[in-house]
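quick one, 325 residues, struct below
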Amino acid sequence: MGPEAANPGRLIRKTPSPDGLLIAYEWTDAKGASRAIDLPVSRSELEASELALGFSVEELRTFLAGAEAGIRKEMGLSALEIARKVVARISDPERCRVDANPESDFKIVLRTGSGGRAGSETEIERVLAAYRRRWEASRKTVCDRLHARLKEYAGDHGMEVTPHGIAVDYKRLVRDSATRLRPIAEEFRRKFGPTKKALLEALYSFVQSIPYRRTPPVEGGRYTAGVSVPLRVLADDQADCDSKAVLFAALWLNLCGHRTILIRVPEHMLVGVAFPFPEGATIDIRSTRYLLLELSCPQATAPGVISQYSADALLSQRYKYRIVS
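---
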């Protein structure tokens, strides 16, 4: 879900700097007030943050093949070892020889010294059938360990393995991004401080004003589950609801110590901030009241104003949340 929001009065100017860009943003908040801020986007930090999130399909395929081959070797369940055990059990190792296949860790070369003799083809088929049964039986044991290795690999790339596939680890992404965004957050504090309320209104209106663009699951050959890192959002000045939520949460983590959550409703994401004396829509989770922030809207709104779609989803309990600070 995402509106194609109009952004009247929004302007950006990008000026090259020694390590990236200095971007001047101008926008209008929900009260009609004009706001402006200049933010540095470091090229090295942008590149590092993008490398830290996701992977290409080929990188994942290479990892899985290597991990499975390693696990099988550790457990004595390689293709070569399984085949040799089968031959030793049901055939004559001197007549039926097994060698490694140089082209694949998951294939074997089976030769028989009884070529032309009656029954040699039947013997080979019998050995191959037994080998296939042993190979299939080994899959459960290997897959359990491979799943654990995949979880580690995903975690090292800012992702997590869920029952529905590989998704972004939002907590890790927000916290890692908060470190990278600290200079930007301090510029918001300098420009719009000193009160938390003033900071919340300024930061919220800024992120909300960023034009909406749906991020595909794979972009530039890299799988990121449809999320752009915060520095990319700032550099491109466009993002979907997930990416804008992460940007806001990462910046807010630098500006306020109050708990922050990301709330997923079907095809959409909101942010909740534990804020003193909240005005507007809230949600209570684990004895904490959160002010709701909708960062992708057709027009500028105040904190605590959410769409009917989001309100209905929350009321019907069709949501999940993740504490990120």
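The longest strand covers residues 20-28.
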